[in-house]
Design a protein that fits this description.
Shape: elongated
Distance between the termini: 38 Å
Number of strands: 0
Strand content: under 5%
Helix content: over 70%
Largest sheet: none
Radius of gyration: 16 Å
C-alpha cells in the first residue's frame, strides 16, 4: 500500500477531529482512544515530514 501524502494525513487528522468533536453521536471510550492514538501518530508523521523539509530548505540556503 502506498504511503499517504502529507496533505492526505492532514485530511485524516481533520476527519478524526470532526468525529471526536461531534457531540450528537459521542464515541465509546475505546473508539475515542483509537482515534486519539491515530491522530497522534499522524501528527508525529506530519511533524517529521515538516522537519525533514526544513532541513532541505536550510541545506539549500547554505549552498547559495
Amino acid at each position: 500500500m502506498k504511503d499517504s501524502t502529507f496533505e492526505q494525513k492532514l485530511d485524516q487528522i481533520d476527519a478524526i477531529l470532526a468525529v471526536m468533536d461531534d457531540t450528537e453521536t459521542p464515541l465509546s471510550l475505546e473508539a475515542a482512544l483509537q482515534n486519539y492514538e491515530q491522530g497522534i501518530r499522524l501528527i508525529r508523521e506530519c511533524t517529521a515530514a515538516l522537519e525533514e523539509a526544513q532541513k532541505k530548505v536550510d541545506a539549500a540556503d547554505t549552498q547559495e
